[in-house]
């Protein structure tokens, strides 16, 4: 079956692909396909796999492989292939899967704040703050002022104004530094976390080495794009005892000490960058640093920052990429010429073009600026694995889960020893026209009822 990419957001409004549907109906595969599609939980860009999985009985005494217990062959499935969720974290790519990701992130952050899922409940009593780290300025941009005065251009921009965040004077805006800052944001954060431990130790009267026997600093962070296209970080930072979240922090560990140490570390940290055309770049955080103590829900009087608010905030931004700043681009560019066709702001176009141009330089090869041009130079927190590798691993994880579900449904007692032979090959992504139409006729996918977010 040919695999086509298709957007199903407006599938309800499109006419049904009648010939393909009537073929499926005539073949008697419609109910089966609907069953397969409902197993995707609303994923609109599933991974398609060709292959098979066979489970054999093994004789416990002789170790000999015996009869076939179960066999799954993708060609015998109603859709002709095994369909597994895409697991994409981005809202713009897959509403259903990003919703799962958002909920998982919410659970993960909440567990670190309140306990649960293996973390003890007393973490709620550990000092913890919610901190926002920004990028420095790269030139004046159109903005909304809090004092009610107009933007420097003389306009009162409304919240939806696309000009917000774009350069007042594109000819003097420092696009080069803006892109390179994003590209060094990860290393800057890593160095900051080292400095932070040093500053915490200093305030406790300990050496860095001694600190480990008394306390640990742990954090969860998320990157977000500001409208001007600069990455900034939101982080939950917590002080624990020497054994991490399992152990209570020492008496000197307070939210005030932590806040003070964060301020000192953030103002001192610097990462040296490349020298381009005689200009030596160095990267620091912007002066705007916001650190707030997180209170537990019980103390909330409507003013305090609560655990729930923090978890919801982080989870929301975990499902977004640079498209929140650029408006449209959520995947890598193959050719810079594609830029002309995209419905993005001129400011975003300049940032991407700058990343692309810098990406041609041999001395900046390690920053992989062309591959990450769509992220405005930022390589993201998923930089440790290549996209393709993770997609395939994720797909196989899902294939196993799919198999387990099928097994459970069969309601057979599991034999003690089995031998499994499986082979899966990536066959493509997406749904055919008829599958997409059928999928849209199932339950609405979580997250698709809301309006599209262009934060
Ligand atoms: Zn999906
Ligand atoms: Zn303006």
Automatic annotation (TrEMBL):
<dbReference type="Pfam" id="PF20199">
    <property type="entry name" value="RepSA"/>
</dbReference>
<protein>
    <submittedName>
        <fullName>Replication initiation protein</fullName>
    </submittedName>
</protein>
<dbReference type="InterPro" id="IPR046828">
    <property type="entry name" value="RepSA"/>
</dbReference>
């Amino acid at each position: 079956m040919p695999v086509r990419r298709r957007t199903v957001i407006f599938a309800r409004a499109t006419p049904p692909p009648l010939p393909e549907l009537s073929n499926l109906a005539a073949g008697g595969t419609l109910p089966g396909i609907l069953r397969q599609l409902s197993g995707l939980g609303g994923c609109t860009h599933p991974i398609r796999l060709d292959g098979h999985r066979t489970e054999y009985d093994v004789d416990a005494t002789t170790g000999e492989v015996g009869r076939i217990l179960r066999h799954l062959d993708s060609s015998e499935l109603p859709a002709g292939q095994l369909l597994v969720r895409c697991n994409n974290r981005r809202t713009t790519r897959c509403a259903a899967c990003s919703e799962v990701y958002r909920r998982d992130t919410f659970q993960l952050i909440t567990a670190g704040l309140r306990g649960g899922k293996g973390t003890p409940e007393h973490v709620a009593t550990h000092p913890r703050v919610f901190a926002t780290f920004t990028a420095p300025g790269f030139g004046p941009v159109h903005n909304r002022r809090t004092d009610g005065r107009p933007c420097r251009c003389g306009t009162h921009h409304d919240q939806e104004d696309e000009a917000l965040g774009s350069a007042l004077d594109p000819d003097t805006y420092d696009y080069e530094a803006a892109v390179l800052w994003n590209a060094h944001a990860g290393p800057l954060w890593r160095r900051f976390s080292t400095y932070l431990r040093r500053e915490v130790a200093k305030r406790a009267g300990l050496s860095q080495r001694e600190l480990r026997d008394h306390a640990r600093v742990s954090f969860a962070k998320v990157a977000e794009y500001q409208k001007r296209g600069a990455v900034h970080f939101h982080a939950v930072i917590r002080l624990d005892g020497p054994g991490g979240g399992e152990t209570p922090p020492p008496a000197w560990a307070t939210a005030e000490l932590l806040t003070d140490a964060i301020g000192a570390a953030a103002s001192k940290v610097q990462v040296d960058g490349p020298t381009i055309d005689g200009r030596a770049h160095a990267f620091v955080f912007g002066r705007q640093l916001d650190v707030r103590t997180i209170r537990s829900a019980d103390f909330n009087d409507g003013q305090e920052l609560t655990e729930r608010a923090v978890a919801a905030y982080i989870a929301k931004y975990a499902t977004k990429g640079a498209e929140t700043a650029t408006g449209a681009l959520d995947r890598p560019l193959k050719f810079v010429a594609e830029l002309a066709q995209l419905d993005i702001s001129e400011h975003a176009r300049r940032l991407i073009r700058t990343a692309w141009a810098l990406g041609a330089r041999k001395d900046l090869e390690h920053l992989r600026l062309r591959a990450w041009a769509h992220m405005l130079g930022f390589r993201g927190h998923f930089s440790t694995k290549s996209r393709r590798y993770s997609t395939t691993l994720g797909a196989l994880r899902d294939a196993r889960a799919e198999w387990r579900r099928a097994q459970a449904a069969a309601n057979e007692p599991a034999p003690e020893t089995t031998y499994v032979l499986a082979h899966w090959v990536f066959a493509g992504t997406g749904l055919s026209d008829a599958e997409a139409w059928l999928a849209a006729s199932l339950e609405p996918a979580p997250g698709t009822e809301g309006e599209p977010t262009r934060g």
